[in-house]
Amino acid sequence: MGKNNYLKLLGILIVVAVAPLIIKGDYYLSILVFMGINSMVVIGLSLLMGYAGQISLGHAAFFGIGAYSTGVLTTQFGFSIYSAFLSGLLLSAGVAIIIGIPALRLKGHYLAIATLGIGEIVFIIFNEMIGLTGGPSGLSNIPPFHVGNYQFTLSIQYYYLVWVTLFVLIWFSLNVIHSRVGRALKAMHGSELAASAMGVNLSAHKIQVFVLSACYASIAGSIYAHFVSFIAPNNFALMTSIMFLVMGVVGGLYNIWGALMGASLITFLPECLRVFKDFDILIYGAILLMILLFMPEGFLVGIPALFRKYFK
Amino acid sequence: MTTNQLILKTEHLQKVFGGLMAIASLSFEVREGQIKSIIGPNGAGKTTLFNLITGVHPTTAGKIFFQGKVINGLKPYVIARLGISMTFQTVELFPQMTVLENVMVGCHPRSRAGLFSSGFRLPHMKKEEKWIRDESFEKLGMVGLQEKASLPAGSLPLGEQKILEILRALSTGPKLVLLDEPAAGLNKVETQKMADLIYSIRDRGITILLIEHDMSLVMKVSDEIIVINYGEMIAEGPPALIQNDQRVIEAYLGGETDYA
Amino acid sequence: MDLQDQIIQYLASGLTLGSIYAMVALGFTIIYNATGIMNLAQGEFVMFGGLIMVFCTTTIGLPLFVSFFITLLLVTGIGIIYERLFINHASKKAPLMTLLIITVAVSIFFRGIAMFIWGKDPYGLPHFSSPKPLIIGGAAILPQVFWILGLSLLAVILMNLFFNRTITGKAMSACSVNRMAASLVGIDVSKMVLLSFALSATLGALAGAAITPIALMEYDRGPMLALKGFCAAVLGGLGYGTGAVVAGFLLGLIESFTSGFIYSGFKEAISLIILILVLFIKPSGIFGSEEVGKIKKI
Question: What's the rounded Cα separation, in Å, for the pair C144 and C214?
Answer without folding.
Answer: 7
